[in-house]
Amino acid sequence: MGSCCCRRKSKDDSFEQLCKSSIASDNETISTVDDQHAQDNISTYGATATPKAGIAKKSSDKGKSSQKRNYEKPTLQSLEAEITMLRNRIKEEEVKILDLTAERAGFIHELDDLRTRLSSVISAQVTDSNPNIADLSDQNRPTKLAERYSELYDNQWTECYEGLTKNLKWKEKDSITWILGLFINIFQTCADKASKDLEQLREVLKKFQSGTTETLKTLKDKRKKSSVVPKDQITAKLDGRFAENKQAIDIAEKFINESVELCWLMAVQDPPVHVDSSVDQDKYKQPLDTNLYKYYTQKGKLVDYVVWPVLFLKKDGPLLSKGIAQGFVDQMQSEDQQTMVGGSGENTETFDTHF
Length: 355
Prior knowledge:
disordered N terminus, three-stranded antiparallel β-sheet
């Protein structure tokens, strides 16, 4: 009996101990869950706040922020002032933009002027006294003058020759020699005057500026294109040499007028177009160069007399127009060796006398 009670007591003690152990385990689990929950709250609401405290703090912060925004809310007057200030700044910036745009335009214009001046200087240096560069818009360029030179011989020269031989009864050679001398005199007078005028101009420019190439080139071009011909100054010098031939001068009036204008235009070219004025010297029985001359009415290896001078692009330059010369034939030669094309300049067959 006693032993039965002891066993029962032992069982009761074991059961009580098991219950205590279970309760302790449950409390430990609850404690662990509470700790985890608390840790989660700390992560969410802060290290020292409980969920309710966090919610309360958040609500409090929201209220303070709302109060702050209400405190900093701009007034209508401040907005209008700010708009006015911005508009003024925009106007100031627009003025600055306009000033910069005008300054930029000024720089561009100045740059264009400098480029134009540089181009003019380079052009003047390249084209000054350079006949190889021709202005195709110039109606008085050397090739055009060469055409007028041929027309002068075909037209006015022929009229003058016929007037001298028919009206004054001059001999053929005398008429041709007189007309040739008249033309050479006109050309030399024009060449001398043009050269002196240019030299005077160069001296004047030196007094005002050191570099005269560009300005001088511009003035030479203007003189070349000008229609002003100092006719009176040139023809006045003819009266001295040809005063004794007043009738011949009257007959040659058209020839003189055209010659003066043409020779002046040739003299003001840059460089001047050159007429072989050495033909007024005695070329009798000199070799006749067919590269420079065409025959007048008679062929021959030698020159009898020159009818019309050779025209060159410039002195010692390329040929522009051939001259005309009468070939010399020795009277002792047989007729088979002679090539006669006519005895006089009137009513005779002539060669093509132009280049």
